[in-house]
Amino acid sequence: MSALTLSTSSAATQRADVVVIGVTKGAKGPVVALGGETVDKAYGGKLASTLDALGAAGGEGETTKLPAPPAGLKAPIVLAVGLGETPGKHESYDLETLRRAAGTAARALSGTKKAAFALPLEGPGSVAAVAEGALLGAYSFTAYRSSAGNGKAGKDTKGGKDANAPVAEITLLGAKPRDKAHKAAAERAEVLAAEVARARDLVNTPSNDLTPAVFADHARDAAKEHSLDIEVLDEGALAKGGYGGILGVGQGSANPPRLVRLSYTHPKAKKSLALVGKGITYDSGGISLKPAGHNETMKCDMSGAAAVFAAVVAAARLGLRVNVTGWLALAENMPSGSATRPGDVLSMYSGKTVEVLNTDAEGRLVLADALTRACEESPDAIVDVATLTGAMVLALGNRTFGVLSNDDDFRSTVHELADEAGEASWPMPMPAHLRKGMDSPVADIANMGERPGGGLVAGLFLKEFVDEDIAWAHLDIAGPAFNESGPFGYTPKGGTGSGIRTLVRLAERTAAGDAG
């Protein structure tokens, strides 16, 4: 991960390969944003007109590189990144706008050794936003890249440096290294970025290298490094314990399932959170096989478990005064002679029976067992995270996750915290009349109901396995978990780490005694 430092040096005197400034959209053209004053001075006060001549307007996501003037700056290159509309006289810069701009700049600086960010910093909040955005944007998944032919693939043939490598060093100008609030904001950003990167790496790893057992090994390694408690239930323990949902999904695969309990405990904690993640390391659909065009990215169906895993580790690294337990429900959903068939009935860990009408509605089955198990520890709240339904993608698009809950106040809290974290979410209902569609003539409930409102139906199914007296929320991250289009802001192509920052904010709020 990129190294992060804070500095009170000006953009003019800071030694770096590139200095980054912000530009907003003004009534008469681009306007140099707060933080870029000394850079503008080096251009004789004509930086805005120069950018205007180059076609820059200051729109969000826009980047413009230009050479530094002959004198006045130590950095040889200036990168101007768009911030959108100029804030009003008494308005501050929007934190998510700063976060995205920093991420956009970091992505544009691949192959750069050192970059100095002179974006608007108006307090610890903006320091956190710029630090998070820059570190999240400076991400690259290269585990499967190899030098080809002459060994110069991806290399600058003159300097021998990797042109695709993330910017190595990031300095935030205007951030005070001796200010406790600024320092804490930067340290938190480093933890968040590192754990988001952990999840992104897992999501991007091909399924042949990330089976349920291998995923569990990653959790073991993290538990050892960060002094977490861990319990891994293998197929034998799952069978002995009666985890029919997880076993039913995983029984068609040569790679058997796992249920991982990963726990962080603070000695002074008064509240506890349970986080439950769907971890389908590959989803073929099972006997209800997905058609071509719908299975190529299904390595990402464990994004929920990756988010939970990363959030638990982040809580531990931040030393939050709350107990956080993560449940990773891991299985591979494959067709074979031993796979669960449509029409089969599974006996769940809760004791309820489920008629499986569609084996491609498997995520709710593994989550049901994990939710029931999580409830046994009586946490103050439970949140599950899953790439659960295509219906939620149709409803909310590729960048927004749905929030469902058995408690309206808790749903509002999670939605609010997601907004604070910079993650787009939307509260969704669970209409009671949709429950009837899951009535089964042979079992307690079917795993499918009415097709319209399929994301809501899935939430109603999960609700059946949660104790009524425990606040529970379900995050359906099917849209934003895996970005199949081009990168934007601080979001790369591929695994995104969706949900992690929201979970960490919830843990922080719970530690402060304000959630639930």
Task: Report on this structure.
It is built from 14 helices and 20 strands. The protein has 516 residues and is of the alpha/beta class. The strands form 4 sheets. It has an 8-stranded mixed beta sheet, sandwiched between helices. Strands 1, 2, 3, 4, 5, 6 and 7 form a 7-stranded mixed beta sheet that branches. It has a 3-stranded mixed beta sheet with strand order 12-13-17. Helix 6 (212-226) packs parallel to helix 9, helix 8 runs antiparallel to helix 10 (363-375) and helix 12 crosses helix 14. The two termini are 34 Å apart. Residues 148-158 have low confidence and may be disordered.
List the helices and strands and how they pair.
Layout: E1 3-7, E2 18-26, E3 29-32, H1 37-42, H2 47-53, E4 63-67, E5 77-85, H3 95-108, E6 114-118, H4 124-137, E7 169-173, H5 180-204, H6 212-226, E8 229-233, H7 235-241, H8 244-250, E9 258-264, E10 272-283, H9 303-318, E11 323-333, E12 345-347, E13 353-355, H10 363-375, E14 381-386, H11 390-396, E15 401-405, H12 408-421, E16 425-427, E17 445-446, H13 454-463, E18 471-476, E19 482-483, E20 494-495, H14 500-511
Parallel strand pairs: 1-7, 2-5, 2-6, 6-7, 10-11, 10-14, 13-17, 14-18, 15-16
Antiparallel strand pairs: 2-3, 4-5, 8-9, 9-11, 12-13, 15-18, 19-20
Helix pairs in contact: 3-4, 4-5, 5-9, 6-9, 8-10, 9-14, 12-14
